[in-house]
Specification:
By secondary structure, the protein is α+β, with helices and mostly antiparallel strands. The protein contains 14 helices and 11 strands. Among the domains are: 39 residues; 52 residues, Arc Repressor Mutant, subunit A (Orthogonal Bundle); 76 residues, SH3 type barrels. A hairpin with a 4-residue loop joins strand 2 and strand 3. Helix 1 crosses helix 3 and helix 4 packs across helix 5.
Length: 436
Amino acid sequence: MHMAERTSEEQRIEFYRSHLRGASYAEIAGTQEVSEECVRYWCRKQREGQGVKSQWHIPGRGALSQFDAEVLEHVKDLRQKHPRWGPISLRLHLEDEKDLKGKRLPSAASIGRWLHADPQNRRLPKPKQSPPQTLDHVHQRWEIDFKVKIQLQGGETVQLHTVTDPFSGAYIGAYLYVSEPSTSRVPLQDVQATLRACFTEWRTLPEEIQTDGETVLAVRGDLPTDFTLWLAGLGVRHRMIPAARPTVNGSVERAHRTTNEYCLCGNLQRSPKELQAYLNQARDELNRRYPSRAKGCRGKPPLRAHPELLDPQREYLPQHEEWIFDLGKVDAFLASCQVQRKVGKTGQITIRGEDERYGIGRQYARQSVEIHFDPVSREYVAYFLQTNRQLQEVKRWPARNLEAHRFLWPGDPVPIPYPQQLFFPFVVDFFPQVKR
């Protein structure tokens, strides 16, 4: 018996009418030349009030299935080479693939759905802990942070210094330095080299630099570090975040993750010099082409959203730093600090570290004195709190280790070389020569 490939809606209605008149499924199937199962199916559907419309269940073909197979292969290949790249990074680099010229490319959202289809690619949602925004223009504040003990496949260990402008979301600087495998310490010379590279590239000094409590940067007890005083001499405020509050440094923390996933992952087989060159190129892409999530960018790359980044606000040239540096500002900063010191049993105190001991006299042993800085004479002055609550001056010392050269070029005897990049849009091949 010939069986119809598809029944019409009129046939299905007739199946049910015949069945209501007393015909069996088998009789109806024989008369209409269809299977008994077909008759039973449409009779039951009408008895349950579901009608006679066909419901076609087309299996999902998966995200990106509507695009050329070669496009999907390139997405998979980019993801394999850069396992931490997200949909925006993948979409950005699809445009650079010569084999895909003229082909329709998926949007970042489509690529995101393709990634999300694999549970391993899904990130757990994080609670939003955005600090209150207190910035209103570019170069008002730069944030700097460090990633240490990055092991390259060639056996070398490097540290990554990242600097961002949180208002614009711009990647101000990202530099690698060779370090000992076991050390987490960030040398002051390297931090200065990074910031000088940023000052030079953007031709400007920011109003303030924000850091965490890194040992070489944080306040040493109750007096500022050489790093803080170096910035003070340049007219830059050093702002430190509260302890155990990395979210306050959120801009540079996110930049660390982006830099690691966008550039370092999948490229650790490169030499430090090659990796620095790749890092320079990636940073240029992030600033010029990569959509920023920073407030005020509205999804545009930082340099498109904030072209004023290229307008120096406080002109800086590296060869002029010694002229810019104002020791009077260092003295004024120290003059605002008053600290307490307990005199040792030998009549000595320390002021700015164990290498700065000053004798005050055994008669004050185990008593507390208050230390001020006199900016006129550049002396430390010790005061003793008398029983009548009045301060009595008891000793003066010429302050040591406050010469301009100490802050500008710590170490002996010559300044370390620091990275000097040409101003955007030029990127130079640079890797700092750092002592091991």
